[in-house]
Amino acid sequence: MIDFDRKHIWHPYTSMLDPLPAYAVESASGVRIRLTDGRELVDGMASWWCAIHGYNHPVLNAAIQDQLGRMAHVMFGGLTHAPAVALAERLIALTPRDLQHVFFSDSGSVAVEVAIKMALQYWFAAGRDTKSRLLTIRGGYHGDTFGAMAVCDPVTGMHELFRSVLPQHLFAPRPESRFGEPLSGVDADAFESLIRANHHELAAVILEPIVQGAGGMWFYSADYLRRVADLCAELDVLLILDEIATGFGRTGKMLAGEHADVSPDILCLGKAMTGGTVSLAATLTTARVATGISAGGGVLMHGPTFMGNPLATAVASASIDLLQADDWQGRVAGLEAQLADQLLPLAAHPAVLDVRVLGAIGVVQTRRPVPVAELQRHFVEQGVWIRPFNDLIYLMPPYTISSEDVSRLTRTIESALDVLEEVPVSPENR
User: Fold this and answer.
1) Given the residues 106, 144, 224, 271, the one annotated as active site
2) 236: annotated active-site residue
3) Of 41, 101, 206, 394, whose CB is crowded by the most CB atoms within 10 A?
4) With 80 as the cut, is the pLDDT of residue 429 above it?
């Protein structure tokens, strides 16, 4: 199986000529991934941040099985169904009050595409065609489709290859004001000067609130986000918050925007929405935007084949109910405390540049890019699953993980720092 996979199947961000190793999985349960050779790995990634309840959860399995007995899928064009309506009700209830309209899609990248279309169509419908550009900040990541790529950081967003064919948007410097710190005048002035100089051509500002994910795992000041929202309101620029990675409790709030008490015009959700079972995303917007797009017979120009999929929407409702029934705030607060206690001392290691923790996220930033293949091998040998990238070794585990398993993950990161000191980095193993 591994040989066929290596010869014929692409994995994320890999070469077909010299791909990174892939480990064969037999099953997964709780916070453990079982490989086909019998080894079990404690998952520190929550399957790229989405399996917040762990794997093979009986409540989520039951929701899928129950819906499967009714229908796995039906087109959403001209039809509707109870699972989609029930999920929309839940999303409207847990997001800011002004967000009253829901568009379902099948991935986070597509949710961002829909958000960008909403912003553009809103201004086009208003007869303001010049408002057709976007403003964002460096260090961001919003997905791999073309609209999303255009607002990812041109370098750290992994899409520099396509720069010449992407729409050219505006990038403010990454805010250096850290989470928990007040906004610096340098950060405030840099963003304000850009938006004031260009607001007449800006359809929207798009940001990952508080936590920048795959672009660098950076946590920035809530004051910065609040200032951005105030400027958008003042200058008549829509605000899009991409909460695909941060939504559903990851930062200690249900939505990261709550740290700044910010209500966007458009909100993107995904990843953890179904508890890591089925791909699903949603884009929510206000009555102002929805009415503006729809006035005069206008329609939102998007319609995925699997939009509002019954299996996905049914299990998403079950996942949200499970989250809200549990003491998720307590679990995330406990994870934050333990990650801080066990990771922050690693800042003294000579291989480490910075350590930061927020909610159920722990990040160790190294002084040089890590040799991914070698570190991945070390992690698997130690019985954990951690997927580093660039100069970052980080944890975003399921909320259900035990303190013992968290300690196992953090101890393994500490041992990996010594491995990092011994292994040279080449383009092939980054």
Assistant:
1) 271
2) no
3) 206
4) no
